[in-house]
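Changelog-adjacent note: as of this version, every example in the card shows the full chain rather than a window. The one below runs 570 residues end to end.
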Amino acid sequence: MGKDATNDVMQGMAIGKNSQIARLKRIAKETRVSLAIGIVLLVLFFVSMVGFALESRHQIDCTMYLNQYRLGSKALTTAVRSYAVTGSRQYYDAYKQELEVDKNRDTAWAGLEANNLTAKEWEVLNEIASLSNGLVPLEESAMDSVSAGDLQSATDYVFGETYNSTVTTISDLTDSLILEVQDRLKVRKNVMLALQTICAVLFLLGFIKMAGQCTKTVGFANRELLVPIVKVSEQMKVLAAGDLHTDLDLVADDSEVGRMVEDITTMKNTLVGIIEEIGFALEQMGQGNYKVSIEREYVGEYIQIKQSLEKIIDEMRVAIGDISTATQEIDSGSGQLATAAADLADSCTSQACQVSDMVMLISQLQENISYNEKEAEEAVKISNLASSTLVAAGEKMGELDVAMNEINECSRQITLVTTSISELADEIEMLSLNASIESARAGEAGRGFAVVAEQVKKLAEASLEAAGQTSDLIERTTGAVDKGLQIAKESAVCMEEIQMGAEETASRINGIVEHLKSEVGSIDKITDGINVIAGLVDNNSATSQETAAIGEELKSQVESMVDLMGRFRI
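Full-length structure tokens:
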């Protein structure tokens, strides 16, 4: 099936709601939606996690920098108070270390600027910075008093009510600011945590949904696709093995697999119908009935099978008709051949009888000549009687000449008959060859006819060989007869001369005796030739009888062939 035909079939297949394609598309769509939702929820979950981490980090940083700012202020306060009380230089150096080197308050301030405090929080922080800066003059006065050796004044500066209240205010403001920042960031953390929790729950639900869709997809693929495909594959293996009667364990419906099951069932029914019809047609043809016809409607590539089978049936009808006609002609020719062979056998038998008579005559002539030879010395006394005897011998020689002519004429007729037999054998062999060709075309149904054609061919070859042998023998017989005729004519002339010599003078008796001795040798030769001719005629007779028997057998075989061809109905 071509690509265009396949596309037409695919376009012609309507996709119903229950088809595997429609259901698989729905499942795939639901899976894609679940996957998209899951991805979105996963992104939100990671965003909330990042936001929560950032807020936590922001809270920690703000608290750390505020504590660092407060610790810096406390370090300055502690150092200046310790210096005021003790006057020890190390506390002064610690104060300068914090103020000029460590600069914790400056570092904390820069860190707080990077953490996006609110305006209100900056107001509190600026107030704390202002209060801290307000303590600097008192601390400088205390350090100057310590330098002057007035520790009491220095203590009054840093432990006085103004300094204490300011430090207390700074500590309280710092604590409240830390709490305010923590509360603000805690709310944001809680929002992020809630969002993270919601996303996690939704993602879990989406994952469960997606897992369900995957399970549903796997179950659908296994139940609706894999199992039916395996069953269809097993069914196709069964069909490939030639079994068209094993049922497919699937139900036909409007789904793709159901339509496939319906198509397979239709294909099986079509194949079973085609095979049954072809088997019936071949069975009828095997029984000789070529009137059978193909009635079933074939589709697709099966049309070629139907056309080929119809062509075979038509050609077999024509071939069998031709063979039947040729068989009838062979039957007629074989009858004529049998008749001709019988006539030839009768003619040869008649020739054998005539040759036998001639042999007897020659034998008598030989006896007479021998007797004349012995009695030649008394020929003078009985010359008149010898003359009469020579006249009788001349008459016998005339009869011999007539008999020889008749043998020659019979040989010529036999030659014509053998020529007809050879031509008839050639025609039979040609018909046998045509019959063999037609039987080969017929295949198994013509095997029996091929055997008959082979037998006909063998009979034709045997007839042709026998005819050849007969022609050869006849040619030899004709040659011998011609020689005998020549000798007979010469003998007749000699007899006439002897007769004339006997009438003319008895004095030439001695010459006649010598001549008779010569004639005895000639008669011996004639006797030998006649014996050869007799053998040839006998052989021709036997050959002609054998030819007649072959003709009868050929006629019987042809009649059997006619009966065999009568079994075919065309």
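Structural remarks: The chain has a mean pLDDT of 75.
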